[in-house]
Write a structure and sequence with these properties.
Layout lengths: L11 E8 L5 E7 L10 E7 L7 E4 L23 E4 L3 E8 L12 E4 L2 E2 L2
Antiparallel strand pairs: 1-2, 2-3, 3-4, 5-6, 6-7, 6-8
């Protein structure tokens, strides 16, 4: 799936998809497109009202994080908890975020969300 009609210039991974009662698709995924070195991870959300034929998408995380800074060396996981719930009133994505991971060996991952009220 191409979320914006173009091939991804960098990595996109750990998607989650939800569909509202009217058939509008929503997706979240983690993405390194904002980092030329392809390391920093951000989270994006997309929407398709035509069964996935075309998509719009936007950044929903407020900061990127570097998984090399203790995230993977401490036993933390990423992506296992990414989900999205949708209704006719709200879009509620949740994703694993490592921006606040402490140094090795403690390890910690956080769950972030971005509540969008639909009009």
């Amino acid at each position: 799936m191409r979320s914006n009609g173009k091939a991804a210039p960098r990595d996109q991974f750990f998607p989650a998809i939800g569909v509202d009662p009217d058939g509008v698709w929503f997706a979240i995924w983690q993405d390194t497109r904002l980092d030329p070195a392809n390391h920093l991870i951000s989270t994006f959300q997309g929407e398709s009202s035509n069964g996935g034929q075309t998509w719009t998408n936007h950044l929903i995380s407020t900061a990127s994080f570097d998984p090399r800074k203790s995230f993977f060396t401490c036993g933390c996981f990423i992506g296992d908890y990414n989900q999205i719930a949708v209704s006719s009133e709200v879009v509620l994505p949740a994703w694993t975020d490592g921006r606040d991971s402490p140094p090795k060996p403690a390890g910690d991952s956080n769950v972030w969300t971005n509540v969008e009220i639909r009009s």
